[in-house]
Amino acid sequence: MSFFTHKENNSSISKRVFRGYIVNLLLLVMVSGATVWGVQRLHEWIDSTEKVDKLLHQIYLARIEAKGFSLSSDTTHASQVDSLAIEISNALYAAENSRLYSKSRSELENVNVWMEEFNQYWLMFIDLKQKRFDAEERMDRLFQQIFINAREPFPRLFRGAAQVSGADTHNDLLFQLLHLKELEKRIWNFPLEIVHRDSVDMIFLRIRRLLPPSDLVPPGTRAGETIRQLKTDLASYQSVINELVFAIHELHSAQGLMISSAEAIQNAGERANDQQNRAMERLSLYSLYALITIMALAIIVGFWMAYIFMRKVDKDERNRAVKDQLLQENRKLLNDIINNSASLIYVKDLRGKYTLINQQMEEILGMEAHRIIGKADDQIFPSEYALALQKNDQDVLRKGEPVQIEEFLPSSGKRRTFLSNKFPIQNHDGEITSLVCVSTDITPLRQALSELELSRENYRNIVSNVPGVVYHCQNDTRRTMLFISGGVEKLIGLGVDAFIAEGQSMMPFVDNEDVQKVRETIRSAVLRQRPYEIEYRIRDLFGHRKWVYEKGLPVYEKESTKVTLQGVIIDITAQKEAMTELMLRDKLLEGVSEAVKELIMTAEPEEALLKALRVMGQGAAVDRAFAFTNEKSPKTGKLILRHIVEWDRIILEPVSRNEFDNVSYEEISTTWFYRLSEKKEVVVSQRNAEPGEMQFLKTMKSASAMLIPVFVHERFWGFIGFGLGTRSGDWNESHNTLFKAFAGTLGIVLARNEGAIELQKAKEAAEAATRAKSDFLARMSHEIRTPLNAIIGWTHLGLEKLNIPGHSDYLKRIQSSSRSLLGIINDILDFSKIEAGRLELEEIDFDLEAVMQNLADIVMFRANEKGLDLVFDYAPNVPLSLVGDPLRIEQVLVNLVNNAIKFTDKGEVVVKVRVKRKDGDQVKLLFSVSDTGIGLKEEQKNHLFKAFSQADVSITRKYGGTGLGLAICKRLTSLMEGEIWVESEYGVGSVFSFTVSLGMQSTQKKEQMRNAFEGTGDTVLIADGNKASAKSLQHMLQDFGFSVKRCSSSRALWQELERSEMVTPFGILFLDPEIFKTHSDIEIQKIVKSTGEFEHLVFLTTPFNENRYADFFVNNEKIARLNKPANYSSLFDCFMDVLGGDVIGTTASAGKRKIYRELLKEKSPLKILVVDDTASNRMLAVELLDMANIKTEVVTGGPEALELASRFNSDCPYDLVLMDINMPGMDGYATTRRLKKMPGWEEVPVAAMTAEAFGDVESLCLQAGMTGMVAKPIDPEDLFRVIYGLVFGVHDLNDRQVMAEDSMERFDFPDIKGLKVHHGIRRMGGRSDLYKRLLKGFCHDYKNFGSSLDDLLGENDNDSIYRLLHSLKGIVGTMDATDLYDLAIKTESAFKSQSDEFVKLAGELKEQVKEMVTRLEHISELQ
Length: 1423
Fold this sequence. Notes:
Blueprint: H1 2-9, H2 12-67, H3 77-96, H4 102-107, H5 111-150, E1 157-159, E2 162-164, H6 166-188, H7 197-210, H8 222-340, E3 344-349, E4 354-357, H9 359-365, H10 383-399, E5 403-411, E6 414-426, E7 432-441, H11 443-465, E8 469-474, E9 481-484, H12 487-492, H13 496-500, H14 512-528, E10 532-539, E11 545-556, E12 563-571, H15 573-601, H16 605-620, E13 624-632, E14 639-648, E15 663-664, H17 665-668, H18 670-677, E16 682-685, H19 691-699, E17 704-712, E18 715-724, H20 733-750, H21 756-801, H22 807-836, E19 844-847, H23 848-865, E20 869-874, E21 881-884, H24 886-902, E22 908-919, E23 922-931, H25 938-941, H26 953-959, H27 965-975, E24 980-985, E25 989-1000, H28 1005-1012, E26 1019-1023, H29 1027-1039, E27 1043-1047, H30 1050-1062, E28 1066-1071, H31 1080-1089, E29 1094-1101, H32 1110-1115, E30 1119-1123, H33 1128-1140, E31 1151-1153, H34 1156-1162, E32 1167-1171, H35 1175-1186, E33 1191-1195, H36 1198-1206, E34 1216-1220, H37 1228-1236, E35 1246-1250, H38 1257-1264, E36 1268-1271, H39 1276-1288, E37 1297-1299, H40 1317-1323, H41 1328-1342, H42 1345-1355, H43 1358-1375, ...
Parallel strand pairs: 20-22, 26-27, 26-28, 28-29, 29-30, 32-33, 32-34, 34-35, 35-36
Antiparallel strand pairs: 1-2, 3-4, 3-7, 5-6, 6-7, 8-9, 8-12, 10-11, 11-12, 13-14, 13-18, 14-15, 16-17, 17-18, 19-21, 21-25, 22-23, 23-25, 24-25, 31-37
EC number: 2.7.13.3
GO cellular component, one term: plasma membrane
Membrane topology: Multi-pass membrane protein
């Protein structure tokens, strides 16, 4: 262990030496092993060869012995043969058990067989030899007996008549016996002589013939007995000899077989020995070659390693020198880092004593290092700090793991907070030797966090107190709320929880007449990617109708195509009522004015009164107007009424009545006279009228009436009245005030003939009426503006106090919307103030560029909507830091620029600022607003600057407007010691100019910017298709000291760049990307990649197109951005970014909100029932829900769902039900109603799934008991959001962020024509396998779509046709087959409306579905 530890701790050279030693040792071991193996193998071969030789030797000995075998051999020789056989077997066994060569072993495989045959033949030979000895003894014994018997005398024999001599016969017999004996010798001389059995039988036949026959020799005689015995012995002797002959022949055969076996054994042994010897020779040779090769390889590797080793050693020496130097530098760098770090860095030993501290710690503690090192915490810090530090140190040492903890240290008499990272230092044995701590001062951070929490609390208070509703919602038909402020409770009557937790929507509260308008406005804004403003009516929870003003903005998520809406809703009911009353008052004032004019201009009193009442009645929108005078009855002396004149709205002729002749006040009402005589009005209606008043109303054909007394010279002359035919009691203060003003004027006119005093009073009354109008306008405008000012004030306070991303956007939108509405009211108020002489100007310091920027912020959106360019052109000598009233200058500019945009359809609007005159610290500026609009005729110019007037009536109808704007501008410029005028050419455009006198500040911002930065004569290039914009930018650049070139087309741009590459590159290229009319992205990419034509690149953009080029900013940090219209400040900031600071860029958001799928995974597993008649939809729902760990059960229709519910015995096991709307038999609405009536299922939330998430579907779902809706094609995140909201309540994801995922993630899936594959896979939650299964399901279900549709059309089965088209629409939408989806929608719509286009659309749909199925079936990945 210590050796390896030592090796690991050695230098690189030592390691290389050790490696070389190991390699050489391995080579030596390998050579030695090979040698030992070769020697051992050779020894084994030699041993096996020797054993084969021994076997062959024994075989040879056996062969020698076998050759000596014969009938005459000694039987003792047999033991030698047995011994040799045993020796051969032993030698064979030893050879077979040795390392024989394979061929040698195969040669010896049959030796055992042959040895067994040899032994068998040998045993046969021994047996025959034994038989020979036995036969020889028997033959000798028989021969002796025969020979003895043959010597006995025989009786004489007769052959026929002749007598045979006994001596001759006996001699012949002896001779034949001797011949037999000779034959026996010949038998034993086998194989030199071969005796056959026939020869033996012939001799014995002769001997028998020599013996007398048995019948010639008397039996019982000696001769007879001898002859009988002789015959018997001869027979036995013959048998023995024949057996011997046969055995000898057999022995001959056995000897031959034995010799053959011995030869086979000998040949096998010789061949085995030969193969073994040859194999041993080859092995020896191969071993020699292998040994030589290994030794040569070892020598080569040794030399090669020595060469490499020397090179490595030399390289290591050089590296060592470099690393030593680098080590020294790193040590110095580490020391510098430690001492210059803003954090406290120190090291302690195991006793808690400091062994190292950095310079920052010395400064924080105010103690030098030598006073700290070697001491423990309790020797340096107070006990309360020391104990805490020591405890934390002990925790680290005990656990042996790093910790991060907050600690407190005293510094300069204050307690400071530090974030300490403490970790142990271990040696190579894993033992802790010391402790290191890095502490960062987080005291300011802690204070900032505390302040941030306070700011959040302030924000919540501000939002809760802001009049109006701030919201963030989904772009769906319900406008599902993601965030909504507490103001909604005051507006609607429902709290925030009803909208967020319970999923309530704003749309059900919108007035039915305005629902379509709201949806169309939002849809248009989303399509155009622009903000929207709209006024509409709502009914709150208590049925009260209210007017609201909404301003919102579609928000597009960069990572997906999802769109949400953010905005503000303000209750403008009071403003609307005030405006309505104001308009009524204006109309009444006009009526009073005209009526007074008629009274004055018409000489006949009754005719004048009739005309005046008609004008007043029309102005007040009443049904009739009448006048009664007072007279005394000549009969009774009572005060009676006399009807003078009456105007009826539906009758041309004056109305004359005699029903009231001699009718007194008492007959109608006793209170009328007293109220009227006290100059009080009388209002009467059928709802609360007395009998006499009711008769009066019936006679006057009115439901209600207002009576105003008329006094002449303070005398109660009578009254005028105004009646409403069908409405009752709809009278307000305006009616009362202006009717009284008219009655007063009428009284004066009636009394005009009574003297000049009365005439003067009439004049004063008219002037009072005019003043009343102005006062009323000022008062009402002020009342309208008051709540708006509160909104703006609270919003401003929120923007000042808070800087929370997202929330500040809400406040800015509130502020923008409020100011827009306030601008309308200010026009009215300003004009009223001007008329009343109460408008005062401010004298404050302001920045002219700030005024112009505000102007741009206000009008830029409208200009962009109409495709107009807005250009600001400053003269070089225009001062920017001024003294005056910036609000009024801005007001004039906004009026003029808004008018220019209103009357201009294409081209540009240019705002120029020039110096007309300078006098010390005073300056008169000339502003001009030029446009390329419709222009003005000469006769139209005369009415421009008059109140409530425009060029002509047609312009009012086309472009709208009150006609106050230019009148206010004229009066404001007059107040600022200036004038306003217009120069215009009809059909060409107009130039509105005005001058104002202002003061100049002592310090000018432009001079400060010039001092901070000034160009050195570098040449810059402006590429802008708008010449006016380019010229304005050129003036500002030249003011900063640059040399400027301009080009207005892409062709000219490339020519300038090619020229600059050959001469001198431009310092900066100011590029408007819109200069490229076609292939802009390709052209821009070429510009971005250019290196030699310019040094810096600045994009000229607007707030409305900068997102289009955001990818260039993200991918290239060297690209800066300058928004148009530019000014000196923005240009200066651009210089700092490009030449002296960080480059302006746009980066993608680092985070995104946590998705609902992850939130559902964090919860306990849910169980959901899916009810859908389409198999592919069921499969898709199951797969999507499984991604969120949701268990799913599916049924195919409403009856199946009800049957399933009935089986659970009032105990619903599901957390939610997803219900398809369009199903055959029982649709989703009916299923939900019946499901909600079943015990245990009443509280289970049901969410609708439908491809028709618009129109009245939402209200039908709510009526059926469904509390949520998922639109088809299904968006997974929308599905998870609905589920989470219905089960757990809507979750606010703003405070829970995770790192963003690559929204433009690409998936390993082939592109398919007609499908947005990657969008479809993202819709599947990123699961390409699920998308693949969806496509397979589509091919399976709609392969025969055309024939199925034709069959249903032939059967006129409209319900099935609708379901088929509806299901197709849902699945192709989920597949993201865009064109096919649009065609499916059109076809379904045409079928529902019974349009004539259905046949054509159905044909196209069948063809496209068939093509899509065919296309998908040829995709290999789907097979």
